[in-house]
Design brief:
267 residues
């Protein structure tokens, strides 16, 4: 069993436990009080390469990434640094995250928020919406085709945008043919062994039709890399670990985005 398989198996166990603690009916009732609409997909289509800045406590490969800073501290620094959107990693066992992290980010920042987790059950979609997420991640490698299609359709019915993550041509074909996904994430990290190959973005990009929003995930940490992505037509990047490790995450993000101290991007 590889890393992805282990995480998916533990996620199913955690979802069963949370469903017993918080019934789906309660989550459905909480949706009535859902906050203001923050369109995630639209935030990624502005000129230049949009940065989705991620709050990530730890990972199986890197261990603890940052201690001593609150979620609010980090996401406010990201907002000032010119982030287009925020990603909150909520998986608990392996990444140390939680839905409370997402709720805190929602209260602190006005930016659209992506719940980044291993979504395998419709219950998690209702959790996401009730906690204040504007978008969710669906990992093609983690889901059977029938389940992938059902989760995508239900997420859109709940007014959640969906970032569909692929790693190779076969997964990209599923995202295109089965879902006709509008926002496609190319993850350069292999979820079986957590190695990173940034060239994967350039290899897969040629197979994505025009009109789709393309996000490259993992392994990017310099303005030169973002400039290279912009030249080939990538719309955005998801950056987490390099920002979380920086002494000043806001300043590190400004170095990527070119934003001034207020978060305004240079034209």
């Amino acid at each position: 069993m590889n890393v992805l398989d282990r995480i998916v198996a533990s996620t199913r166990e955690d979802v069963r436990r949370r469903r017993e603690e918080v019934p789906l009916s309660r989550l459905e009732s909480e949706l009535a009080g859902r906050g203001d609409d923050r369109p995630f997909s639209e935030a990624l289509t502005l000129p230049g390469v949009a940065v989705i800045a991620e709050h990530k406590r730890r990972s199986p490969s890197a261990g603890t990434i940052r201690e001593g800073a609150t979620v609010s501290d980090v996401v406010l620094a990201y907002e000032r640094g010119g982030a287009a959107a925020i990603s909150i990693l909520t998986e608990g066992r392996h990444f140390g995250g939680s839905l409370d992290d997402l709720r805190e980010a929602r209260a602190a920042s006005a930016l659209p928020i992506l719940r980044k987790d291993f979504i395998v059950d419709p219950y998690q979609l209702y959790e996401s919406a009730a906690a204040g997420a504007d978008a969710i991640l669906l990992i093609v490698a983690a889901l059977e085709p029938r389940v992938l299609g059902a989760l995508y359709g239900e997420a859109r019915a709940l007014d959640l945008d969906v970032l569909v993550e692929v790693h190779d041509e076969d997964e990209l074909e599923r995202a295109r043919e089965q879902l006709d996904a509008d926002v496609i994430g190319i993850n350069t990290r292999n979820l079986s062994d957590f190695s990173v190959d940034v060239e994967r973005t350039f290899e897969l990009l040629a197979h994505i039709p025009a009109g789709k929003t393309v996000i490259s995930e993992s392994g990017f940490h310099s303005r030169e890399q973002l400039d290279a992505l912009e030249r080939v037509g990538v719309d955005g990047v998801l950056v987490g670990e390099s920002l979380m490790r920086a002494d000043d995450p806001g300043a590190a993000l400004r170095a990527l985005t070119g934003a001034d101290e207020t978060g305004e991007l240079a034209l």
